[in-house]
Design a protein that fits this description.
The complex is a heterodimer of chains A (304) and B (431).
Chain A lengths: L1 H9 L3 H36 L15 H7 L2 H32 L6 H9 L6 H12 L5 H7 L16 H26 L3 H9 L4 H12 L1 H16 L3 H6 L11 H11 L3 H32 L1
Chain B lengths: L10 H22 L5 E6 L4 H16 L3 E6 L6 H12 L6 E3 L4 H7 L7 H7 L1 H4 L2 H7 E2 L2 E2 L1 E8 L2 E4 L1 H7 L7 H13 L3 E4 L4 H16 L1 H9 L3 H5 L1 H12 L13 H9 L3 E5 L4 H7 L9 E4 L7 E10 L5 H15 L1 H11 L2 E2 L11 H16 L2 E3 L9 H16 L5 H15 L2
Parallel strand pairs in B: 1-2, 1-3, 8-9, 11-13
Antiparallel strand pairs in B: 3-11, 4-5, 6-11, 6-12, 7-9, 7-10
Helix pairs in contact in B: 2-17, 5-16, 8-9, 10-11, 10-13, 10-19, 13-20, 19-20
The chains are: A mainly alpha (304), B alpha/beta (431).
């Protein structure tokens, strides 16, 4: 390497110039494309959210009219509340189940590889598949309720999916089923990274096993918790396919989420302006999570 | 770390491949520009029977010496197709014709993108051929811009005669009779009314109930003209209460069910009735059943003097090229000619858009449908379907869907509140 560098300095040839600039040249188109297609379109969406665009984009500016219409829209509030309920429950339950599974799998059991694959496998399915499968399982006349009733428990009821007040929790069930194996894998990797000698030292001090996990192991896993929350949060916010496949937003619009709200209004109902406004509010939600994350990441890097 | 050695690429190979690339790009470009005497038609007739029906039109066009470039976008309700069409139109490259229906034709017309068909309409005498109510939808600014392809009737009640016999009931002609029949069917151990709890299906039942409970004039005022007094008035409250009662006739597994699964429940004798447009006939036919014998059809209870229509139409985009214009006019003419009307509608389960055709090849339900279409067109009972985008614009339709489906699924909401919300929805959505 050294030799070739000196040669380049001595004789700045075309190939030498190319070698120095190649990485930049190769990266430039993708940087330009992402600048344009990600940030450019974000900007365009913001511009559209200030217009009265209906079926096609128009540039008739109406200020923040679309935002106030959005705020007055009952369905938007249902969608936002649903996102809060769904997001919080989904993240919390996934973390709890994932951690427990990881701790149990970490006990040096036989066939760990096979079990790990079984738990992780749902993550390999698309949310559409998960949604369709759970739609059948939760259908009161086909799935779990019908099965238990056929065992003789006639009064058994599990009809959440057709109940507007409970349907949002069926989304949580399906999403948790899908993602907790993945959280388990993250935590398992984290647990494996913990130095055995710390645990042994705690054992020598006479700490009980739950206490060791709570006071010694879990604090070591803080970065893992952080990344798990980040990943789950963004899965929750962009949830679209699961709703479409599992409940179709129903009963009524009881399981609508902001993503499905945006799609319906912008593309099916010829209200591009309103759809864009809701997209901007979703972006706001994502930024509210992303900025603290970036901040803490950058700060810790400076310290570390 | 491996470094890339650029000298591996032989300059002459590079030159060759660049040439090949340019050539490929050139051919692709040439292929995408339409030949002048060709029509490009965007549609979503992609299911088996529909695709065959669309092929009839293609053959007819080719027999007249014009090319046909098929631009089929799958997706039942045409939402995907509309999204594709919008992006094509925005980039200034719309197809020559597209399957656009109802008030959306007006929206496209207002954008100044549609070309007029008056020449062929006058030559073919469309004004005498098509009922005035239908023709109005095809016109923008008094000029024909679209041509109707078929007519679906939405206010149908389908029934399984074996279930009716087992429960000892007849086809109901009023809502009260329907509720009474429902009780008997439930007692006999069947589900009275098969339904799929999706917003558009809720709205389909809703509009049939409004029509059956309050009549054509009220339907017209409330769901077409969006008169706030009608939308929020006592009559609407009463219609909404009837609508909510329909839930008693349904089973609890309906949430999110597709309409054809609900039809299958009638076919298999699990359920007695279904309220659905005549596209349901496709399912009955596919199951090998005969209209009038293995399954029954009648106007939705209380609506025998009305006909809620859902019309597919092809709108023509404005083109500058004379040859392409000529091809468009030929397409429009062929669509209304008997050959295509018969072949297409036999395949699709709908009835021809011109009422003067020989209907002997059609089944009993289609014959009744056409007879009712003519009769109601004369007597003023012909109304556009709100649930299928024929009455109001997509934004208002969506807002009404929201209220209807929310009310239908919410056990606590009083009908008065739903009526108020309807008024509100119609106002705010017409931003």
């Amino acid at each position: 390497m050294n030799k070739s560098t000196t040669r380049i300095q001595a004789r700045p040839t075309a190939s030498g110039w190319l070698q120095a600039w190649l990485p930049r040249l190769v990266l430039a188109p993708s940087v330009a494309v992402s600048l344009f297609f990600v940030y450019g379109f974000m900007l365009w969406t913001f511009v559209l959210s200030l217009t009265s665009s209906r079926m096609l984009p128009s540039y008739d500016f109406v200020g923040f009219g679309q935002y106030s219409r959005l705020m007055a829209n009952d369905r938007w509030w249902v969608a936002s509340t649903n996102l809060m309920v769904f997001g919080v429950l989904f993240i919390a339950v996934c973390l709890i189940i994932g951690t427990l599974l990881a701790i149990l799998l970490d006990q040096k059991i036989r066939q760990e590889g096979a079990l790990r694959t079984i738990y992780l496998y749902p993550m390999a399915l698309s949310f559409i598949v998960t949604g369709v499968v759970w739609k059948w399982l939760l259908n009161p006349q086909l799935g779990i309720q019908a099965m238990v009733q056929s065992w003789g428990f006639e009064s058994f009821r599990f009809d959440w999916i057709v109940n507007p007040d409970m349907a949002i929790y069926t989304l949580v069930i399906a999403a948790v089923w899908q993602a907790s194996g993945f959280v388990m894998a993250l935590f398992l990797a984290g647990l494996r990274g913990i130095d055995d000698s710390i645990v042994k030292a705690a054992q020598l001090d006479g700490a009980s096993l739950p206490r060791i996990y709570w006071r010694v192991v879990m604090p070591c896993l803080r970065p893992v918790v952080f990344s798990a929350v980040m990943i789950l949060a963004h899965i929750a916010i962009k949830s679209f396919d699961l709703v479409v496949a599992l409940t179709g937003g129903g009963p009524g619009y009881a399981t609508d989420l902001p993503a499905t709200f945006m799609y319906t209004h912008a593309f099916n109902r010829a209200q591009i302006g309103l759809g864009s406004a809701s997209a901007m509010l979703m972006l706001g939600g994502v930024l509210a999570i992303l900025i603290p994350y970036l901040y803490s990441e950058l700060r810790s890097r400076k310290h570390g | 770390m491996p470094t890339i050695n650029m000298s591996v690429v032989n300059p002459s190979t590079f030159k060759k491949s660049a040439l090949a690339l340019a050539l490929a790009a050139g051919t692709a470009l040439a292929a995408s520009t339409i030949q002048a005497s060709e029509v490009e038609v965007l549609h979503w007739w992609t299911s088996g029977g529909e695709a065959r029906a669309a092929n009839v039109l293609k053959d007819l066009m080719e027999a007249e010496g014009y090319g046909w470039q098929d631009f089929a976008v799958a997706g039942g309700g045409g939402e995907t197709a509309m999204t594709v069409l919008k992006s094509r139109a925005m980039s200034g490259n719309p197809p020559s014709a597209a399957q656009i229906k109802g008030p959306e034709i007006q929206e496209w017309g207002e954008l100044g993108l549609l070309g007029d068909l008056d020449e062929v309409a006058t030559a073919e005498g469309w004004n005498d051929l098509i009922p005035e109510r239908v023709a109005n939808i095809m016109r923008h600014d008094g000029q024909f811009v679209a041509v109707p392809v078929n007519v679906h009737r939405v206010n149908w009640l389908w029934a399984n005669p074996e279930v009716l016999e087992a429960a000892d009931v007849e086809m109901p002609t009023t809502l009260d009779e329907l509720f009474a029949a429902g009780d008997a069917i439930r007692e006999a151990g069947f589900i009275p009314l098969a339904h799929g709890g999706q917003a558009w299906q809720d709205a389909t039942v809703f509009e049939s109930v409004v029509l059956g409970s309050q009549g054509t004039e009220f339907y017209q005022q409330a769901l077409v003209e969006l008169d706030p007094e009608a939308l929020g008035g006592e009559q609407m409250v009463s219609a909404l209460e009837d609508f909510k009662r329909m839930r008693e006739l349904m089973d609890e597994g309906m949430s999110g069910r597709d309409w054809n699964i609900a039809t299958a429940m009638v076919i298999e004798g699990e359920a007695g009735f279904q309220l659905m447009g005549d596209w349901a006939k496709g399912e009955f036919t596919a199951a090998g059943l005969t209209a009038g014998e293995d399954y029954l059809c009648a106007a939705a209870p209380g609506t025998e003097d009305a006909f809620t229509f859902n019309i597919d139409s092809l709108a023509m985009f404005r083109v500058t090229d004379d040859a392409e214009r000529e091809a468009q006019q030929t397409l429009a003419r062929l669509v209304l000619e008997p050959t295509f009307q018969e072949a297409f509608n036999l395949a699709k389960g709908s009835i021809p858009a011109r009422p003067d055709l020989d209907m002997s090849d059609f089944d009993r339900c289609a014959q009744q449908s056409l007879a009712d279409f003519q009769r109601t067109a004369d007597e003023g009972g012909l109304v556009p379907s709100m649930a299928h985008g024929m009455a109001v614009r997509a934004s208002i339709q969506g807002a009404i869907f929201d209220v209807v489906t929310n009310y239908f699924n919410d056990t606590d909401m009083p009908a008065e509140e739903a009526a108020e919300r309807l008024v509100n929805a119609a106002e705010t959505a017409s931003f």
